[in-house]
């Protein structure tokens, strides 16, 4: 019998990377990827019916309201998707004995710590996005036993738009860039997160709970931009200047590096963030070369 896995929010960058990653696997894992238009997780009734008509061993929730700044104004919408809908999903999983793998964020923390955040550290989000994601986590822990909540940070991929694709295209236009040094976190590749999620399922882990998953090391957004620029030999990196100011609608934690020890006790395949950025930028450049040829 094969293991059946539902992936919601399949059109997002994580959903797409996960789909790419499992494409050539020949294991007895059967993935079903559904986009928002195929399954809107905020429609309770649709979701209930969907789970009544299909049966899954796992549900990976890649669906979320992810616009951190817009969430300050669209608070209701952010909570509808990141909290209420996550609760509906947890109920469906509970009723159908499905393990929920849910993705959460480093923005559940306030950033006042100066050493990497543990899973057990006190949460205290400072923006609406973080509050809505934390409330989603809390619903899962109240409703469901078999769950993995994976908190991750500064996600990027070859699929626009994210920090890497935005900076890479500005560099290609030879733009001047001013990038903040006020926040420290860990850029994490969606490819690497996909590998970890796959590994969790494949090994049929039962140590349910909250896990911090990011790449190794830490960076400011300025460091991150410089690393991307490494790949563009004809770009003058003096055009990238650092600033200590950061103006945005939503506050961000100054420090949101996560301690990965809980994951690392079992999973030994995390790379330093710089290596993962290299491989994603190389992928982006390959696609561009291919398209241009
Ligand atoms: N991006 C980051 O830096 C970051 C950092 C830490 C944690 N995370 C978390 O990582 C997860 C994946 O993020 P991502 O970067 O892949 O996000 P993303 O690219 O914005 O993808 C989110 C997907 O969710 C879909 N969606 C929104 N509302 C939905 C609904 N009601 N029903 C079904 N699907 C819905 C979106 O569809 P539409 O595009 O059609 O709206 C989109 O395809 C999220 O849980 C996010 O909170 C992200």
Textual characterization of the structure:
The chain is of the alpha/beta class and 293 residues long. The chain has a domain at 3-155 and 189-217 and 257-272: NAD(P)-binding Rossmann-like Domain (Rossmann fold). 39% of the residues lie in helices and 17% in strands. The protein has helices spanning 13-23, 44-53, 75-96, 128-143, 163-172, 190-202, 221-229, 261-264, 273-292; strands at 3-8, 29-34, 58-61, 99-105, 147-152, 155-156, 177-180, 184-185, 188-189, 209-212, 219-220, 240-243. Strand 3 (58-61), helix 3 (75-96) and strand 4 form a beta-alpha-beta unit. The N and C termini lie far apart (44 Å). The model has no long low-confidence stretch (mean pLDDT 96). The structure holds NADP nicotinamide-adenine-dinucleotide phosphate (NAP). The site of NADP nicotinamide-adenine-dinucleotide phosphate has 24 residues, from helix 1, helix 3 and strand 4. NADP nicotinamide-adenine-dinucleotide phosphate is lined by residues 8-9, 11-14, 36, 40-42, 62-66, 81, 85, 103, 105, 133, 152-155.
Keywords:
single chain, alpha/beta, Rossmann fold, two-stranded parallel sheet, 9 helices, binds NADP nicotinamide-adenine-dinucleotide phosphate
Write the layout of secondary structure elements.
Layout: E1 3-8, H1 13-23, E2 29-34, H2 44-53, E3 58-61, H3 75-96, E4 99-105, H4 128-143, E5 147-152, E6 155-156, H5 163-172, E7 177-180, E8 184-185, E9 188-189, H6 190-202, E10 209-212, E11 219-220, H7 221-229, E12 240-243, H8 261-264, H9 273-292
Parallel strand pairs: 1-2, 1-3, 3-4, 4-5, 5-10, 6-9, 7-12
Antiparallel strand pairs: 8-11
